[in-house]
Write a structure and sequence with these properties.
This protein is α/β, with parallel strands linked by helices. The protein has 4 domains: 1-27; 31-214 and 390-472, Zn peptidases (Aminopeptidase, 3-Layer(aba) Sandwich); 229-268 and 323-384, Alpha-Beta Plaits (2-Layer Sandwich); 270-321, no CATH class. The chain is 36% helix and 21% strand. It has 15 helices and 19 strands. A 6-stranded mixed beta sheet has the order 1-2-6-3-7-17. Strands 16-9-8-18 form a 4-stranded mixed beta sheet. Strand 8 (210-214) and strand 9 form a beta hairpin. Helix 4 (146-161) crosses helix 15. The protein is globular, with a radius of gyration of 25 Å. The two termini are 37 Å apart. It binds zinc ion (ZN). Zinc ion (ZN) binds at residues 112, 144-145, 178, 207.
Length: 476
């Protein structure tokens, strides 16, 4: 494509987006919010990062700070609820509602307020102070997910100030305890005990999105429609034991080892979903040569097994194709000179959504092929379904993306890890992870040291969140 054609394509996308958002087309449309909103976004980010919401501290302080900002922005007390489980008063949540015209059912945003622990001595900067340095904001939660919290809160306040009337209500729940595996997970608790407050036709979870960048080049904006289901098993083999000078074939360590070796060699069957087919279709545009051709092949009703075989060789694509079960812990024996009486292993499975969990267990038993091994589900898994990658919704998200980054690909995806969307999906609300906190795929710092977000990336994230919220709330 010539330079000229490329510029035309960008210009026409910009013109289209200007039409979509009812503003005058300008030759260089700004990707950052107006000054008042840029300043508000930054001030919210600073305030949220500087409120410590590690697991031991809880999120009630942050929930009250969000509520205060909402009140200052003119939201009525009746539309703001700060609430925590009676037995976990520090695990506070805040739910706010911007009333719509009643033309559509509500949209719910879920945004966790808690952060992974951070120790001052591990960091270059104080993790609970917002530090701006060389075009970056540093602080715990900078990318997971206080920047998205700030962007979502800013967008809601901006829409309120502008007098925007959504078709249906926009609800935002800022919640507790996503990171620590939650004794008081806010989304789980709200779905189970305050459904009326958060009930919605559509859930957006900015935590579940993935905006992938390499060397500063924006590659794809992910829309997470599904998560693999987390299931843990314990295997146990026992025997009466004895003196190690008189070995027997019943040795539990050998029996367990043989079974684990069989599992190590096994691949679960290929199971593509609506989402993962679309994922490969999108990814193929970012690849070249054989890999691009193999990924494009995945769109066919029965893809060539040779293509699947080649793609399965890479971990990143293998985990998209199939359920995986791997050994994560092992223990056994009780004395150097004794035959073991017991050997145990932990097996961690990540199951493709929609696959029956008892079927996975049966496959596991068949592969282990030793009926004397006792298999116990220590974390049986909650079977959260895939949310349909609905074409109309994807088109709306893509139009907003194109209004800012036409060069990046929209990529429906299934996560191998888990987010709060599991709870809303189990609760029957289709949920989508999407946000634009562009992060370098080779330098992800979420949960790590010196977590950061680009200053420009943050400003654009604030603008993207506003545009997407407005677009989604302007449709049925
Ligand atoms: Zn997160």
């Amino acid at each position: 494509m010539s330079n000229l054609t490329r510029l035309c394509a960008v210009a026409s996308a910009a013109a289209l987006s200007a039409l979509a958002f009812g503003v005058q087309a300008s030759p260089t449309p700004s990707l950052v919010p107006p000054p008042v909103d840029q300043a508000l976004g930054r001030s919210l980010l600073k305030e949220l990062i500087e409120i410590d919401t590690q697991h031991a501290v809880g999120s009630t302080g942050a929930a009250h700070a969000v509520a205060a900002r909402l009140k200052a922005a003119g939201f009525a007390d009746a539309d703001i609820a700060v609430l925590a489980p009676a037995d976990h008063p520090t695990k506070g949540n805040v739910v706010v509602r911007l009333h719509g015209q009643g033309l559509a059912r509500p949209i719910l945003y879920i945004c966790h307020l808690d952060v992974v622990n951070a120790r001052r001595e591990d960091w270059t900067y104080d993790p609970f102070k917002l530090t701006e340095k060389d075009g970056w904001y540093y602080g715990r939660g900078a990318i997971d997910m206080k920047s998205q919290d700030a962007a979502t809160l800013e967008s809601l306040i901006r829409l309120k100030r502008e007098g925007f009337k959504p078709h249906g209500d926009i609800i935002v729940a800022f919640t507790a305890d996503e990171e620590a595996g939650g004794d008081a997970n806010g989304v789980d608790w709200l779905v189970k005990t305050h459904r009326d407050l958060i009930d919605a036709a559509l859930v957006i979870n900015p935590d579940g999105g993935e905006a992938g960048m390499k060397h500063g080049k924006k590659l794809y904006l992910g829309v997470q429609t599904a998560e693999k289901v987390y299931v843990t098993y314990e295997l146990e083999v026992t025997d009466k034991g004895g003196h190690s000078s008189r070995p027997t074939p019943a040795n539990p360590i050998f029996r367990l080892s043989r079974a684990l070796a069989r599992l190590g060699d096994y691949r679960f069957p290929v199971h593509l979903t609506e989402t993962t087919r679309l994922y490969f279709a999108g990814r193929s545009k970012l690849e070249t040569g054989q890999v691009a051709a193999d990924m494009a092949e995945m769109l066919k009703p029965s893809p060539d097994p040779a293509a699947i075989e080649r793609l399965s060789a890479a971990t990143e694509t293998n985990i998209v194709f199939r359920t995986t079960c791997t050994a994560t812990q092992i223990s056994g024996g009780h004395a150097e000179s004794a035959l073991p009486q017991r050997a145990r292993a932990t097996i961690q499975c990540r199951v493709i959504p929609g696959e029956p969990l008892d079927g996975v267990r049966q496959q596991l038993e068949a592969v282990l092929a030793d009926p004397s091994i006792r298999l116990t589900a220590t974390y049986p898994g909650d079977n959260s379904p895939e949310s349909p990658p609905a074409p109309k919704l994807l088109r709306t998200i893509e139009a907003v993306k194109n209004s800012m980054w036409p060069q990046a690909v929209l990529l429906p995806l299934m996560s191998a890890g888990a987010s709060d969307s599991a709870f809303t999906r189990i609760g029957g609300m289709p949920s989508y992870g999407v946000d634009a906190s562009w992060d370098d795929l080779d330098d992800g710092r979420a949960h790590g040291q010196d977590e950061r977000i680009g200053v420009q990336v943050f400003d654009e994230e604030v603008e993207f969140t506003y545009r997407l919220m407005k677009a989604l709330a302007s449709g049925q």
